[in-house]
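Priority: medium. Attachment 1 of 2:
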């Protein structure tokens, strides 16, 4: 086995250039194949999303116009006055009734035009045109062959809507039957928009360029002779499709100029897709700008055959970024593989030297391991000291202040005593004050010890601190007492709602730090310009868990600050009492030490409302 390995190593050393070249080509081909596959999938997914989005937008415009036409029909057309005119129509009074209807609808039609409806067309039951509000001088022609929608509404006595080819222009028709109160069919009315207006509405709504192209053969069957040359021109999409001259481009924008100059290639790329009569997308790159064109088939109202396409075009930064990412990834992979090959080459060429260096490095690594461990300990110690100095400052400062006050009172009393001026009332007052001072000093020293212990547990393993039973109300009162010198400065009113008998087995140091940080946070941030500052703490036990609610009536915070409140080092008063660590410590204690959750509700000038759900041991 050793001899075989040596032979292999010798062969690799002898032919390692050839081996590395073949290996490089293999890895490069594999990487590029995977990159192209991934890019193709991502671009395909993007095209699918854009197709869905444009389809939704298209349907939105269509359904909106359908809804508008239905409202206009219900409120302005299908009304007693109009129905009465149709009920009274006979062979002898067609002109007078038409004129009467025109005068009645004239002002309404102005309003209807503002809603985007360009064609308001009344028909008799025999499909004869009775009144075109947009062309009142043209009437009497039979529409049975030209307008399937009119024939359907008059025959089936049901409304019908959809895209329909016309004699002059094509559009989206919404045709409704007219019925008398007794159910007698009186005729029908068309409330429609032409394709140009539909495109304009889409552009103005979504700021996306759009067009509608019509099959030339289908148009020839419907349009009046000579109207194709007058109203339509060949579209860029192919000789078999027409575009209204109103919508035809002037070839001024970059994409249109490109398609005009490369029309043969463009038509060849999409011709097969157009024949499938299905929705599709087409990607185009022009001068480093990527465009996506979405084609949505439009079916004729009569036979549900595809006779037109709705086309939406827009530049796409997403596509550009995808292609750029793919290019940069390929370049990165190329140089990365070169680096890999270089490393392998160096490894093969200097294998013995490298093994020696690895052995030396291993020894140095083992030698420095202990130094790294010590450095980590010093770093942890530095973090601990910083935390202690930040959090312990308050109870130690309160203790020193209280003791200083006690010493001053003692000196004053001794001076009075030496001068034989001390009264019994003064001595009793001194004893009472000394007792309170002692309680404050003791409570704050205990608080400082608990903070140091809590900081130690946070910086190493919090679970190592032993849990014990505490009476919750008594413990919260002790915390409030330790903070009395701070809270009395602004006449802060703190109320609690806690059962006297509520006791739990938990980590008291964590509780102390949580509520101390919350109260100090309110003092620092909440009560500027608050006349009657208040804090309320409510704690109860439900279903084996503790629910603790902390709230104040302070200045509150906006949504941006609320989202960041638990982030480390986030503060709005850096340099003025805020370090940005207090609320992060609260969050970590609640979620990690106590295995619970904490949420915050707050609005500007409406205070804060913290809800904590904590695990407790039975």
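Attachment 2 of 2:
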């Amino acid at each position: 086995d050793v001899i075989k390995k040596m032979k292999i190593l010798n062969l690799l050393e002898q032919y390692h250039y050839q081996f590395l070249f073949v290996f490089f080509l293999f890895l490069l081909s594999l990487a590029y194949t995977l990159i192209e596959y991934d890019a193709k999938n991502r671009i395909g997914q993007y095209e699918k999303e854009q197709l869905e989005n444009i389809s939704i937008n298209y349907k939105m415009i269509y359904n909106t116009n359908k809804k508008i036409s239905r409202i206009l029909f219900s409120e302005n057309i299908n009304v007693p006055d109009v129905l009465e005119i149709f009920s009274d129509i006979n062979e002898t009074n067609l002109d007078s009734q038409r004129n009467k209807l025109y005068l009645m609808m004239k002002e309404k039609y102005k309003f209807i035009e503002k809603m985007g409806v360009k064609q308001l067309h009344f028909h008799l039951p025999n499909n004869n045109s009775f009144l075109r509000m947009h062309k009142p001088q043209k009437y009497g022609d039979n529409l049975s062959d030209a307008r399937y929608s009119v024939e359907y509404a008059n025959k089936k006595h049901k409304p019908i809507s959809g895209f329909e080819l016309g004699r002059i222009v094509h559009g989206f028709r919404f045709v409704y039957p007219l019925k008398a109160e007794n159910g007698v069919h009186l005729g029908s009315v068309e409330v429609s928009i032409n394709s140009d207006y539909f495109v304009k509405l889409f552009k103005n709504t979504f700021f996306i360029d759009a067009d509608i192209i019509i099959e030339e053969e289908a148009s020839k069957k419907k349009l009046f002779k000579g109207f194709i040359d007058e109203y339509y021109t060949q579209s860029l999409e192919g000789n078999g499709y027409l575009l209204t001259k109103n919508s035809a481009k002037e070839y001024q924008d970059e994409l249109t100029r490109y398609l005009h100059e490369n029309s043969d290639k463009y038509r060849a790329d999409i011709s097969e897709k157009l024949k499938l009569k299905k929705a599709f997308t087409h990607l185009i790159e022009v001068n480093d700008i990527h465009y996506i064109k979405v084609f949505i088939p439009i079916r004729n109202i009569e036979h549900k055959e595809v006779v037109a396409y709705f086309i939406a075009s827009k530049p796409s930064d997403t596509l550009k970024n995808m292609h750029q990412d793919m290019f940069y990834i390929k370049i990165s992979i190329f140089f990365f593989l070169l680096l890999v090959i270089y490393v392998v080459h160096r490894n093969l060429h200097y294998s013995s030297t490298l093994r020696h260096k690895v052995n030396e490095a291993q020894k140095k690594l083992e030698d420095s391991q202990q130094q790294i461990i010590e450095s980590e300990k010093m770093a942890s110690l530095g973090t601990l000291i910083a935390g202690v100095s930040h959090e312990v400052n308050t109870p130690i400062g309160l203790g020193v202040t209280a003791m200083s006050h006690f010493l001053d009172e003692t000196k004053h009393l001794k001076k009075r005593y030496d001068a034989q001026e001390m009264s019994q009332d003064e001595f009793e007052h001194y004893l009472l004050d000394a007792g309170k001072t002692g309680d404050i000093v003791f409570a704050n020293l205990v608080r400082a010890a608990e903070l140091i212990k809590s900081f130690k547990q946070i910086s190493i393993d919090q679970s190592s601190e032993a849990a014990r039973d505490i009476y919750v109300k008594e413990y919260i009162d002790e915390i409030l007492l330790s903070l009395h010198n701070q809270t009395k400065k602004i006449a802060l009113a703190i109320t609690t709602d806690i059962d006297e008998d509520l006791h739990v087995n938990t980590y008291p140091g964590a509780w102390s730090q949580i509520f101390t940080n919350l109260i100090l946070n309110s003092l620092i941030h909440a009560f500027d310009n608050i006349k009657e500052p208040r804090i309320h703490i409510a704690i109860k036990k439900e279903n084996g868990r503790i629910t603790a609610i902390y709230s104040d009536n302070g200045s509150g915070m906006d949504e941006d600050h609320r989202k960041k409140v638990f982030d480390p080092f986030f503060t709005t008063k850096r340099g003025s009492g805020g370090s940005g660590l207090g609320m992060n410590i609260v969050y970590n204690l609640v979620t990690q030490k106590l295995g619970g959750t904490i949420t915050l509700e707050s609005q500007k000038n409406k205070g804060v409302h913290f809800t904590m759900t904590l695990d407790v041991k039975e």
